[in-house]
Amino acid sequence: MWTWQFELNDILTTLTIVGVVAGAGYRLLIIPLLQQLDSQRMQDNLIFQEKWGVLTDTLKDLKDEIKLSRAERIKAESKQVLLSAKVEALEVRVDDIKEELHEHTAKAH
Q: 3-class DSSP state for residue 6?
């Protein structure tokens, strides 16, 4: 009958083999994977920062365009008010001239 009998040398040899395999696995598999993940994370951070900068610049441009648009709209509205006032003044003047013309033609007849 076969029994489990371990000596200290067997245990140390097994632990050494497991340690070497684990160390090699860590060095050959885990470290490159961690380095690749770190590299991807750094690249993602750079891309994110670049996109964030583009978004910030776009936001600044949009704010400037809104300010310009608002200024142009205010300028156009004030110009329209000025032109409306001039048209009203011309209408009043035309009405005065019409009245003077009617009075003049009425006196002439």
A: coil
